[in-house]
Structure formats: C-alpha cells, structure tokens
Design goal:
- By secondary structure, the chain is of the alpha+beta class.
- It has two domains: 18-58 and 103-274 and 309-423, Outer membrane efflux proteins (OEP) (Up-down Bundle); 59-102 and 275-308, Outer membrane efflux proteins (OEP) (Single Sheet).
- Helices cover 67% and strands 14% of the residues.
- It has a four-stranded antiparallel sheet with strand order 2-5-7-8, with no helix packed on it.
- Strand 3 (77-79) and strand 4 form a beta hairpin.
- Helix 4 runs antiparallel to helix 7.
- The protein starts with a helix and ends with a helix.
Length: 424
C-alpha cells in the first residue's frame, strides 16, 4: 500500500511539472501571449479594411422601399351624425445600381491609406513578437541568474556553518575568543538574509514567467541552463548592421508607412473640394403620385449620371485639407527623427555590448583571483596566521566575485540579444 501511495505521489508530481529550455519558453510566449493575440486581431482588421477600400470602387446595388398612409386632400365630411375621415395610402420602391466615376481621389486615397494601415499593423505585429521574445530572454536569464546566485550563497553558507561548528569547539577549548565566533555568526545571518531575498526574487520571477507563458500556477517549473558563447561580437559588422537598421528595421519601415498614411489622408481631404460623379440605373415606382396609386404597372427604368459638389462651406474643406497637409509634414519630420533615434539606439546597444563583454572578462579574472586568495587565506586561517575578520572578508569577496561573474555572463548575453533586436 505504501509503495502504491508513493507511486501515486510521484506520478502526480510528474503530471504537474514542466521542464523548459529558452527556445521552448520563447515559443510558448509567442503562441500563448495575450499581446500577440491582440496584435493578430489588429492585423486581421487591417487586412479587412484593405478589402473594404477596394470595394468602394465597385458598383453597389441599393433597394429603397416606402409605404405611406396620409390624410386625404378632401377634408373630413359629416355624414349623418358621424364624421367620416378620408385617407390615402400607397408605396414607392426602387432598386438601383450605382457606379462611382469620379470621387476626387477619395477612393485612391482610401486604398493607399488602407494599405499603409495594413503595413503598420504588420509592423506592430512583428514588433510585438520581437519585444515578447526579448522580454522572455531577459526574464529567463534573470531566473537562471537567481538560481546560480542561490547555489553560490547556499554553498557559502554550508562552508560557514561548518566553520562555525568548528569554532564553537575551539571556543570551548579556549583556542579563540567569543568575538570571533560572533563575527562568523553574523556572517551566517547576513548570508541567510541574502538567500531569503534571492529565493523571493526567484519565486516572483517564475510566477511572472508562468503568467506570460500561460502556464498553470500549480505546475512546478524547471528551467534548463543554456551556454553563452565566449565571443558573441566576433561576427558583428557594425557599419553594415547600422545601414540595414536605417533602411529595413521595423522602426524605419513604420516611419515610412506613417508618411504614406498621412499622404493618403491629404488625398482624401483634397477630394472634398472636388465634384463627385457617379453613374446610376434604377427601376421602380420612384415617382410619387398625387393619389398614391403607384403599382408595379407604372414602374419605370431610369438612368444617368449624378454630380454632387459642395461649392461653398465657409472654407471648412480647405481647413481640413490644410490640417492633412500639415500632418503629412509632421510625419516626414518624424521619419527623419526616427532615423536619428535608430542611429542612437543601435550605437548605444553596440557600445553597451562591448562594455559588458569587457566586464565579463574582468569579472572572470576577479573570480579567479578571489578563488586563489580564499584558498590561501583558508590555509593561513587554519594555521592561525590571519584573524577571523580577515578570513570572513576573504570568503565574502570570493562569494561576491562568483555572484558578479554569473550576472556579468547573463547580462552580456541579454545585451547581445538586445542589440540584435534593435536591428530588426
């Protein structure tokens, strides 16, 4: 029975546990992310708007029908002791086909604007995927970093606890003072505080990752560590990357399409100043008779060309056109500003990547030196050549060097991915 219960516990734990790699975490985020889904819907709406814009150039069929009942032209008449009311009733109905011939550029502007909006929606969708990927890389790396820090801190605590136990025996033998023991105890308590803080950060980061990946909160999440290549900058051609970002990056394409959309708005605004012409053909009882006696018998065909032109509106159409014209100029200026921002962003991210690569190398040397120094100080402390304070300081420096080295490696990798994202 006990074996059966144990097997059930193992199976239930396995059912509610999940192991992720960085790649699988990114795939889950792109598949389940809520922001991705909203961007997909916006993209779909933009595609539908393009279809609508093209359909405005096609003929449309319209049916109009009306039934009326009204007072008769002859007034109410008194017949005997009663007043008798006279009413007339009837209907009109037509079915017609209407084909735009000239709309002053409104149809063309609408199509250009819809295409620009579609491109903008596509760009926002790709940008959202890029940002989600970068967010997961940063969050995943921070979790790995917290786990590495926890390993370093717990290992250090284990060593200090063993040292403390040995010092307690030495105190009983009067081989060291109470002050030395208290200093070690203080170091252990301080270390426990750091461990608690790291565990809290780790727990919060994992919950955040579960929310972003739509993973149930009761699942046990295990992340596989990934290897960071030694020299990520070896294949980078900065000048080529910058040139590509200025012409093909999402930010550059977004700025260009915003200008195109503003241009389309100007075309539509200008169309309100011009006449609108359409051809039409109708069939039905569109002409209302005096006695409402229309029927299918007197239905007729009609056709021709209709012209509508708002000749005078106190200049409101011109004001609308000037607003659209200014908006186009604003977007053109913003496009130039976008190029400047791209240059600044790509250059900044590249310089930061180089700095963090150098920092990683320096942290590696610092860890190596701290390890050697701690090994020497441990021997010197065991032989009574240095004080407890000096030993604890050496141990703290070695521990901190390990924590800083782990952070430097992962920050270096995140900076590399951020640089790559700035080129997309």
């Amino acid at each position: 029975m006990k074996k059966l219960l144990g097997l059930l516990v193992i199976l239930s734990t396995a059912a509610f546990s999940r192991e992720l790699t960085l790649e699988s975490a990114i795939d889950l985020a792109l598949e389940n992310g809520k922001t991705i889904k909203t961007s997909e819907l916006s993209k779909e709406n933009a595609n539908l708007n393009v279809k609508r814009a093209f359909k405005t150039a096609l003929p449309k069929v319209t049916y109009n029908g009306k039934y009326e009942k009204a007072e008769h032209t002859t007034r109410n008449m008194i017949i005997g002791d009663t007043i008798e009311s006279k009413f007339k009733s009837g209907y009109t109905q037509t079915i017609g086909i209407y084909q735009p011939l000239f709309q002053g550029g409104a149809i063309t502007g609408g199509i250009i604007g819809a295409k620009a909006s579609k491109n903008i929606a596509d760009i926002f969708f790709l940008a959202e995927k890029r940002d989600v990927r970068m967010n997961i890389i940063s969050l995943y790396s921070s979790i790995i970093n917290f786990e590495k820090d926890l390993t370093v801190l717990e290992s250090s605590k284990k060593e200090l606890q063993a040292r403390y136990n040995k010092q307690s025996e030495q105190l009983n033998l009067r081989l060291l003072t109470k002050a030395d023991l208290l200093k070690t105890e203080y170091s252990i308590l301080d270390l426990e505080s750091q461990i608690t803080g790291t565990r809290t950060n780790l727990e919060v980061a994992k919950k955040d990752l579960k929310l972003k990946l739509m993973i149930p909160a009761n699942e046990v999440l295990t992340l596989k560590e990934f290897q960071v290549p030694e020299n990520l900058t070896s294949g980078i051609d900065f000048d080529k990357d910058l040139s590509q970002a200025l012409t093909n990056s999402l930010s550059s394409r977004l700025a260009t399409n915003k200008v195109n959309y503003a241009e389309a708005e100007k075309i539509v605004a200008r169309s309100s100043l011009l006449p609108q012409v359409e051809a039409f053909g109708t069939y039905g009882t569109s002409k209302e008779s005096h006695h409402f006696d229309n029927s299918f018998d007197n239905a007729e065909w009609r056709g021709g060309v209709a012209i509508k032109w708002d000749v005078f509106e106190f200049g409101s159409g011109i004001d609308q056109y000037n607003v659209a014209k200014n908006s186009e100029e604003i977007e053109t200026i913003n496009k130039d500003l976008s190029s400047d921002n791209i240059k600044l962003s790509v250059t900044r991210d590249y310089k930061e990547l180089i700095r963090l690569q150098q920092l990683r190398d320096s942290r590696s040397k610092a860890l190596e030196a701290a390890r050697e120094n701690f090994a020497i100080d441990t021997e010197r402390y065991n032989t009574g050549l240095i004080s407890t304070v000096d030993f604890l300081l050496s141990e703290s420096q070695y521990r901190q060097a390990g924590v800083e080295y782990n952070a430097a490696i992962l920050n270096y990798y995140v900076a590399f991915e951020k640089y790559r994202s700035s080129l997309i």
